[in-house]
Model the fold of this input.
Amino acid sequence: MAHKNILHMLTPQKHVSPFDLNMALDAGYDAVLPYAGVAMEEVTELVQDVIFSRPPDRGVRSAVFFGGNDAVLALDMIEATKKALVPPFGCNIMADPSGSYTTAAAMVACIERTLKNRHQKALKDVTIAVFGATGVVGYCAAVIAALEGARVKVVGHDGIERISKRAKEMEARFGIEVEPVDGSSDEKKTALIEDVHVIVAAARAGIQVLGKDQIQGASKLLVAADANAVPPLGIEGIDVMDDEEAIEGTSAFGIGALAVGPMKSKTEYGLLQRMIEADEPQVLDFRDAFALARTLAS
Ligand SMILES: NC(=O)c1ccc[n+]([C@@H]2O[C@H](COP(=O)([O-])OP(=O)(O)OC[C@H]3O[C@@H](n4cnc5c(N)ncnc54)[C@H](OP(=O)(O)O)[C@@H]3O)[C@@H](O)[C@H]2O)c1
Done:
């Protein structure tokens, strides 16, 4: 008899994301069980309840998924889950808080493809400015790009202090280097993008990060990507549907939020299916999401 694939979906927030629930059932899970308001201290007990309820060889048919809206807390919950396992009892582990891991992975994969197709360059050849890097999508995009060898500047919209703390946290956790930059005025943003090849706009929905004049003044710009689909869009001059479209008045190409969306969905779906099909328990975060997204993009 085939054993059922069961996914336990945990979030620190009030509600588990209906998007993720639908996605998991469509990917093939037999049951997806939501747990809302989960605190860090409760992870061990819940995970051990999951693993001890089935014989060890069926652990691979169980999975724990972390949602929420905090990229770092989700990483901490993955670590807490790994520590809670009692071999040979185990289970699959995945996180995608607010869809951020798979969105950032898809965005960076689209940027990588555009750099290659349009400029014959790789991520390791470029300097990237990430706006919104204290948020979940920007955080992951910055780390993925830095792990791929890009020089990454993370931009603070309210001065240098908070973004510097975030940069230190990224560096300590992932062994990367990222440079915090003050983007608290239009003048500062104009000056800092003069020196970058790629822009990632991952600020809050409905906030315009850069205007047309600023983008047109960025003489080294090769690619710009915007995660925001809610008007006003994050970068003036890049439409939501743009997918490697030339940006007027520049030599750069733009990627809009709705060009990233389908690849984000395919990536999340693909990771969920990977856990269903796995012979050994998987641990999946935004690095795995990027590895999959770049194969989908190429
Ligand atoms: N395409 C997709 O499939 C997809 C999926 C998920 C999300 N998204 C989009 O991606 C974007 C980021 O989402 P998120 O979930 O990461 O959002 P988030 O966690 O709310 O983060 C938003 C970021 O924007 C910053 N911010 C706030 N006000 C700002 C301002 N006035 N100027 C510049 N930056 C400002 C925030 O800084 P603080 O630290 O001060 O809050 C934070 O760094 C949103 O537009 C969202 O709609 C797209």
In short: The chain has two domains: 6-95, 100-260. The pocket of NAP is lined by residues 98-100, 103, 132, 134-138, 157-158, 202-205, 207, 209, 227-229, 257, 260-261, 264 (CB under 6 Å).
